[in-house]
TrEMBL record:
Keyword ATP-binding listed: yes
GO function term, MF aspect, one: ATP binding
Keywords tagged on the record: Activator, ATP-binding, DNA-binding, Nucleotide-binding, Transcription, Transcription regulation
Identification of the protein by name: Transcriptional regulator containing GAF, AAA-type ATPase, and DNA-binding Fis domains
Domain Sigma-54 factor interaction: 740-969
UniProt GO BP: regulation of DNA-templated transcription
Alphabetized Gene3D superfamilies for the sequence: 1.10.8.60, 3.30.450.40, Homeodomain-like, P-loop containing nucleotide triphosphate hydrolases, Tetratricopeptide repeat domain
Pfam families assigned to the protein according to its UniProt record, in alphabetical order: AAA_lid_14, GAF, Sigma54_activat
Length: 1045
């Protein structure tokens, strides 16, 4: 093999083998062909000979690797070839490959590290993690984040690295908590992140660190420290006050209220998060909460703690079934266990027991200790409610706790059950959940709900001891005060019922009756299921039991509900709120608004807004009968009220009946949709009993009126926004009123191509010298495109300091960095539904190029300092006076970004190549400036035309415009005076010959322009204006290049 290696291999052969040495892992033959300088047939021949000689090994997957036993001589030769510069070149070529056909992400990261491109490697690992998250692969995402963390952790101190590190740690903490990974490392990560955020002045990250730290302490069982940290984070978020940090902190605010037992506020907060996350326009904030605490999950059991059992059952049942469909067994058995507990509390114990036993069995099979804990807890509650106290005790004794977490529960029945154990002398003390220990812990804790229950139990204990009635009432009044803060009518009613009993014992029947009536009113939606039988006689003394609502009362209450909706600027957000409110009003498990954009003749309605109902539910077999009823309502314009409709299968495989309520929605005499509500588990309430056809029609009219009113308002707001945005963006350029003037052949071809490109949404790259009018061409493309009624948003990167480019394009959040004192939307965000024009695209800093590429590909981005993903549907037109192809080949500009930009290339010709367009433009500018300066100017003579045509116009149209403006100001009434340089020539004169450095080339060109401007730097026609620079910027550049004033 020695002779083969030394004598027979050319430099190109060695370079091909060096690719295998550069890449970690196997390389397919196809990839090797694309990266090799050899022709494909020569690569095949080299591979065959190298495999035979033992230099290359073919793997089981038909990939190629450098053989482990290759000689030291060969390894040294390959190492000499693979310099960092060459490895960077290979990495650049790999970027052009389709990821599906190219190297693995791990191999690309390793290659970038070998090439010394550490930042690119860390950034690629972070991007791959984002991709895995989008695909639902949290495990691989964590792997990539760990790698990105390992690369970046030792390179802190530079602002670019610091910002990337914060992004990596932020996501690493989030996924670790979400995926129930090694959460014990969270404090260490946060403490590494804190000084980096302080160094950057990143107040948003400092707020988030406190929030995540609080969540960690709560999950670990330290509720007090968790609340303290979350409170600190929420205060910092409030001080910042921008939309993004408020949205990110909303879920933590929900957890704060949950830990405090303030369930009404918790539900309102989680509801808000859910509404924002359900909007089609984007804006979803990534959740830091584990699955069982996330907004949609928490709403289920918190609704039950508020006594909103219809909603709780609907949410948890929906989560359970979706987890089943997605084959997510860990979440499915957890949700099923929670569903079982709620069904127990509502009195549906047979169904509850079936769910709990199933969840317990599955949790044991897949070793889901958290779900097993909840299932066993539910089975203990079931035994307790069934009167099997000893069974409940032994189930509780065997209940496993989740790893590293102390006793956590929010169900009031838990304390009541422990009290029952305490009163049963035959049962031995429970060491892990001793009654007195738990009561003391709860009373010293922050949860108003549990404190209210504990105080009621203390009152019962005092009553059993024979304490004075006033002492007992004092404890019950304290219980009432605590429970009033929670929003739970059921537990509050229980306390008031005990207060009524104490008043009976005191022989104060009027006071007893008053407390009994208050308890009854609190339970008005729950009836005899929760009201104690022994207090019923009190309701009959002088006041009959509250009758069920009559039809007129129902209509009036529903009308008040609909009228209470405040007009929203987002129609979809409003519709989701309306469906949720209607579902709660009628006690429905699920609801949906099925909508047809074009009326009944435009096809069947589709789901537009929902409550506990997803598109996957609609397409599933169990919903087929409901869908038929929706279409029937849509066709017949008649409401439907049906019970016992064939629905899904229950746990035992039988058919589970469903109650269905459908209301047609009519706008301007045309049926446009159907409001659908259904109910599986719980009995329909008194409201549905009061429904007949006439009542249902009146309700349908009220829904239709409300929807029409809000959609009309939202449409008006959107129209006003579009007009304002268009007007604002159009005013950004002094040339907004300009049009392209020219009839030369080269311009006719260009304009025909641009008009054709305008009809598509393809990215356009306009190239040409400075001053040729690239922005005017971009504006013409916008004006002739389908997006012409939306904003045209220009941004010139050459005029923006490099450190502010990212903020200008993507926007920033308040507190994202020092000096970010308010939220600022970026140009990409402002260009939504319109055209974004980026001038001097070649000046995009390397660190921003990756983010820009992602925005072009996905139309999604985050503001600087933000984590919320925003969507912007824009059409991109870019321009540059640089040779981007050469920059991409040399590595100064990302090749993948160049290929994305160069979809429709248009070359704007220099003015010297446009023939008589010079004269046409000069005449137009003369007319314009004559009007502007109120001058009566003579016509151009033949000599003037010859002079204009003879000049080479190195500054192009911009220079011509400046010359004509100066002419309009300085010329006499008899003759135009253009003041053209007599020795002007193209910039390829000998003065620019040779191969000067970039600084020398800039120096020569600035001197050339100063000569054209007769030494003037500022003012009309000055060098700064010709060069398109600020006067101060040009003076600074001149000082740097050694050019005297």
């Amino acid at each position: 093999m020695g002779r083969f290696a030394v004598r027979d291999l050319s430099a190109a052969h060695w370079q091909t083998l060096a690719i295998l040495d550069a890449v970690s892992g196997e390389v397919s033959l196809d990839v090797l062909e694309r990266l090799s300088p050899l022709e494909p047939q020569d690569v095949h021949a080299l591979v065959r000979r190298s495999v035979s000689a033992g230099i290359v090994t073919e793997t089981k997957n038909r990939g190629l690797i450098l053989s482990p036993g290759v000689s030291l001589t060969v390894k040294r030769r390959l190492s000499r070839i693979n310099t960092k510069k060459r490895l960077a070149s290979i990495a650049a070529r790999v970027q052009r490959l389709d990821p599906k056909d190219g190297l693995t992400a791990d191999a690309r990261i390793s290659l970038l590290l070998k090439a010394g491109l550490d930042y690119d490697a860390a950034l690629l690992a972070q991007e791959e993690a984002e991709k895995c998250v989008r695909e639902g692969n949290a495990s691989d995402a964590l792997g990539f984040l760990e790698r990105a963390y390992g690369i970046s952790a030792g390179r802190l101190g530079d602002a670019q690295w610091d910002m990337l590190f914060i992004l990596i740690v932020n996501e690493l903490c989030r996924l670790t908590i979400n995926a129930a990974g090694n959460i014990r490392r969270i404090p260490s990560l946060l403490e590494q992140e804190r000084p980096v955020a302080e160094r950057l002045g990143d107040l948003r990250t400092l707020a988030r660190i406190d929030l995540v730290s609080g969540l960690y302490h709560y999950v670990m069982g330290d509720t007090a420290q968790g609340l303290e940290n979350i409170t600190s984070g929420l205060q910092k978020a409030e001080e910042l006050g921008d939309e993004d940090i408020i949205l990110i902190s909303s879920e933590f605010r929900g957890i704060y209220y949950y830990l405090k037992g303030m369930y009404k506020e918790a539900v309102d907060t989680f509801d808000q998060v859910m509404r924002v996350n359900s909007l089609p326009s984007g804006g979803r904030a990534p959740t830091f909460l584990p699955e069982h605490l996330a907004s949609s999950s928490a709403l289920g059991y918190i609704s039950a703690l508020l006594g909103q059992y219809h909603r709780a059952v609907g949410l948890l049942d929906s989560h359970w079934r979706r987890a089943r469909m997605r084959k997510n067994d860990r979440n499915a058995c957890f949700y099923e266990a929670l569903l079982g507990i709620v069904l127990i509390i509502t009195g549906r114990r047979t169904e509850a027991y079936s769910h709990l036993k199933s969840a317990q069995k599955e949790a044991l099979e897949i070793d889901n200790r958290q779900a097993l804990h909840v299932a066993k807890k539910g089975l203990a509650y079931h035994a307790y409610f069934e009167g099997r106290l000893e069974d409940a005790y032994w189930i509780t004794m065997s209940m496993p706790h989740t790893e590293s977490i102390g006793p956590q529960y929010n169900w009031p029945v838990h304390l009541e059950m422990l009290y029952a154990f305490e009163r049963q002398d035959l049962l031995p003390p429970m060491p892990s959940l001793a009654f007195e220990q738990e009561i003391t812990r709860v009373l010293d804790g922050p949860n108003h709900h549990l404190r209210g229950v504990a105080l009621r139990i203390r009152a019962l204990q005092a009553q059993e001891r024979g304490d004075p009635h006033e002492d007992v009432l004092g404890l019950l009044r304290s219980s009432e005060s605590e429970l009033l803060l929670t929003g739970d009518p059921v537990e509050l009613a229980k306390t008031r019922a005990e207060m009524a009993r104490v008043q009976i014992a005191r022989k104060d029947r009027p006071a007893a009756r008053n407390y009994a009536l208050m308890a009854w009113e609190g339970l008005s939606g729950y009836g005899q299921d929760f009201f104690p039988d022994d207090l019923v006689p009190l309701l009959r003394v002088g006041a009959p039991r509250r009758p069920g609502p009559r039809r007129q009362d129902l209509i009036e209450r529903f009308t008040d509900l609909m009228d209470g909706f405040i007009p929203s600027t987002d129609g979809d957000e409003f519709l989701n709120r309306l469906v949720a409110a209607a579902s709660r009003f009628f006690g429905a498990d699920r609801g949906g608004l099925f909508w047809s954009a074009g009326g009944r003749d435009a096809g069947r309605p589709a789901l537009r807004a929902s409550y506990n109902l997803e598109r996957s539910d609609i397409s599933a077999e169990p919903f087929r009968e409901s869908l038929r009823l929706i279409f029937k309502t849509f066709r017949n314009k008649e409401p439907l009220i049906l019970k016992g409709v064939s629905g899904r299968r229950d746990r035992e495989g039988g058919s589970q009946g469903v109650s269905v309520f459908c209301l047609p929605v009519t706008l301007k005499g045309e049926v446009r949709g159907v409001l659908y509500l259904d109910n599986f588990y719980t009995e329909t309430g008194d409201d549905t009993e009061a429904l007949d056809r006439d009542t249902a029609l009146r309700l349908a009219r009220q829904v239709s009126f409300s929807i029409e009113r809000i959609l009309r308002y939202a449409g008006m707001i959107e129209t006003d926004r579009s007009r304002a945005a268009s007007a604002h963006s159009s005013g950004d350029s002094d040339d907004a009123a300009d049009r392209i003037i020219g009839s030369s052949p080269v311009m006719e071809v260009l304009l025909a191509l641009s008009d054709q490109a305008a009809q598509s949404d393809a990215t356009v790259l306009i190239t040409g010298e400075t001053g040729v009018g690239k922005e005017l061409l971009a504006r013409r493309i916008h004006d002739k495109s389908p997006r012409k009624d939306s904003p045209f948003v220009p941004v010139n990167l050459a005029s923006i300091p490099e450190t502010l480019v990212e903020s200008e394009l993507f926007g920033h959040e308040k507190g994202a960095f020092t000096g970010a004192d308010r939220q600022k939307p970026g140009r990409i965000e402002l260009a939504h539904r319109g055209t974004l024009f980026i001038d001097e695209i070649g000046d995009v800093p390397p660190g921003v190029q990756v983010k820009l590429l992602r925005v072009i590909q996905e139309k999604s981005f985050s503001r600087v300092g933000g984590t919320r993903t925003l969507i912007s549907d824009f059409r991109l037109v870019a321009a540059t006076n640089r040779d981007l192809a050469r920059d991409a080949a040399s590595g100064r500009f990302r090749q993948d970004l160049y290929f994305r930009l160069n979809v429709v290339p248009l070359l704007m010709p220099p003015l010297r190549d446009r023939g008589e367009d010079v004269v046409d433009l000069a005449q137009e500018f003369l007319r314009r400036y004559a009007r502007k300066y109120h001058r009566a100017l003579p016509a151009m003579t033949g000599e003037d035309v010859k002079a204009l045509m003879a000049y080479s116009w190195p500054g192009n149209v911009r220079e011509l415009k400046n010359v004509i403006e100066r002419c309009a100001i300085l010329s006499s009434k008899d003759r135009l005076q253009f003041h053209l340089p007599s020795s002007a020539g193209p910039i390829s004169d000998p003065a620019f010959a040779g191969t000067p450095s970039m600084d020398e080339l800039q120096r020569r060109y600035i001197l050339h322009v100063l000569d054209l401007a007769h030494g003037r730097i500022g003012g009309p026609g000055g060098a700064a204006e010709i060069l398109g620079m600020k006067r101060t910027t040009l003076q600074a550049r001149m000082r740097k290049l050694g050019i005297g004033k």
